[in-house]
């Protein structure tokens, strides 16, 4: 009796000791579990559902046990699993995690895998990092498969398969050509879509770019839409005037059509008459504007002022004086051309200095040798001083009498 009492007391003391030390069965090593020797690091993995994963479960890479599960807990609606890995195991930072089973009814474990396909490995998985939900999955449980199958067999559509098959047979019987044609057209449609896949993608990209631009101009578009009612109201007020304007335009169009139709022959004749003139003007080319340059600088070309060096340009003037022809033309008299009573005739050549600089109101006189009598006249508005000629030469007084407008 004493022995039994001591055993019970010992068990109670051991239980109290284990309770005080926060003892858990998960702290005991499992048979066949991974034993990590040397340095290690921990990583937290997030799962939407950890199924019945428990601590001390295995962590495998390529179906080889490399680590162990230290802790499983719930954080909100996300299940988190802390795993322990050896320091010698190098995994990329974008490692994927999956909860799998060793067999159909075997234990669960965490499987780590490196990224495959178009995703390239990057970085290195270090201590304290987290593998998020976007890179974790869990396999379908056998219980889930059996539950779904039970739902299908008991209350699903399996019992209706015969009815569905019979109705399909009734619908298809006699309509084989039409159904075959529909399938052919559907095949052509899908093939055409596949051939134009690049264009469709380009069109979708262009629509996306347009949507972005419209979104950037959202405020402007909103302002324009807000101002549309006022614009429409203004147009509505001016509707009568717009209708009258359109009616007047229609009347104008009819009138113009009638006028053009009636004057068609004359218009064509006028255009045909203009054709030679326009042709000659086109043939004249650059000669016409060049000839007009002399109109404003007569009697000198436009380049004369540029060619002259200094303030004045020398000009030689030759004047033919025939008093007989002048008096005959003015008075109708026939005067003798020979004898002592004949009027003098002759030709003189005068050097004249003309200004080339603007603002010159007076012209210098012709230089005359010392001791020579001179006569000054105004020829075409220009002062000219020359040696006085005798009766056999040019007489300025006679020139003033015969040409009062030209010689003063």
TrEMBL record:
Transmembrane segments: none annotated. One of its GO terms (cellular component) is extracellular region. It comes from the Bacteria. InterPro entries: Mce, Mce/MlaD, Mce_C, MlaD_Phospholipid_Transporter. It holds the Pfam family MlaD. Residues 40-113 form the Mce/MlaD domain. Residues 124-313 form the Mammalian cell entry C-terminal domain. PANTHER family: INTERMEMBRANE PHOSPHOLIPID TRANSPORT SYSTEM BINDING PROTEIN MLAD-RELATED, LIPOPROTEIN LPRN. This is Phospholipid/cholesterol/gamma-HCH transport system substrate-binding protein.
């Amino acid at each position: 009796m004493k022995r039994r009492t001591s055993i019970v007391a010992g068990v109670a003391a051991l239980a109290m000791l284990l309770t005080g030390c926060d003892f858990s069965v998960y702290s005991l090593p499992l048979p066949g579990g991974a034993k990590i020797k040397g340095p290690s690091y921990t990583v937290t993995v997030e799962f939407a559902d950890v199924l019945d994963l428990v601590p001390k479960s295995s962590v495998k890479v390529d179906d080889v046990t490399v680590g162990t599960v230290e802790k499983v807990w719930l954080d909100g609606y996300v299940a988190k699993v802390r795993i322990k890995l050896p320091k010698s195991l190098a995994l990329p930072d974008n490692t994927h995690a999956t909860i799998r089973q060793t067999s159909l009814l075997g234990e669960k474990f965490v499987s780590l895998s490196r990224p495959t396909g178009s995703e390239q490995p990057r970085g290195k998985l270090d201590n304290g990092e987290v593998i998020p939900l976007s890179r974790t999955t869990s396999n379908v449980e056998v219980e889930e498969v059996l539950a779904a199958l039970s739902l299908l067999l008991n209350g699903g559509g399996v019992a209706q398969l015969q009815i569905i098959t019979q109705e399909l047979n009734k619908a298809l019987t006699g309509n084989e050509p039409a159904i075959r044609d529909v399938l052919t057209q559907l095949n052509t449609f899908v093939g055409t879509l596949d051939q134009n896949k690049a264009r469709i993608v380009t069109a979708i990209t262009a629509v996306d770019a347009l949507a972005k631009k419209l979104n950037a101009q959202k405020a402007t578009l909103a302002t324009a839409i807000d101002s549309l009612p006022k614009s429409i109201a203004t147009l509505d007020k001016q509707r009568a005037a717009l209708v009258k304007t359109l009616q007047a335009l229609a009347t104008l169009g009819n009138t113009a059509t009638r006028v053009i139709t009636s004057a068609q022959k004359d218009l064509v004749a006028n255009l045909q008459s203009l054709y030679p003139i326009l042709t000659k003007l086109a043939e004249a080319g650059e000669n016409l504007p060049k000839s007009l340059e002399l109109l404003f600088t007569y009697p000198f070309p436009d380049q004369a002022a540029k060619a002259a060096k200094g303030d004045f340009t020398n000009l030689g003037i030759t004047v033919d004086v025939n008093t007989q022809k002048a008096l005959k033309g003015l008075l109708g008299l026939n005067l003798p051309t020979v004898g002592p009573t004949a009027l003098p005739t002759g030709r003189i050549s005068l050097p004249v200095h003309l200004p080339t600089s603007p603002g010159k109101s007076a012209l210098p006189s012709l230089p005359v040798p010392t001791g020579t009598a001179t006569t000054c006249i105004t020829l075409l508005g220009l002062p000219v001083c020359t040696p006085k000629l005798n009766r056999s030469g040019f007489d300025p007084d006679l020139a003033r009498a015969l040409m009062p407008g030209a010689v003063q």
